[in-house]
Amino acid sequence: MENEPNEPQQKCWCDVGHTMKHHACHGSGGALYFVGFLGALYYYLTTATSFLAGVIGVVKALLWPAFLVYGMLKYLGM
What we know:
Number of strands: 0
Largest sheet: none
Low-confidence stretches: none
Strand content: under 5%
Shape: flat
């Protein structure tokens, strides 16, 4: 069996000056989104007054970053 040619190494934006073959960048953004999702889900479900409001609350909990950015841009007047 012959040696396979070296595969090009991929760079990750978080590894300045380092190259690794199989590397994942830090995943704290996903954890932050998940915690925010749980908090938003809890809030929307506990304040829902009907089943439809609960369903809409689940959708809002999934999209909470969009609401956050929209509110911030509206507050800043952009």
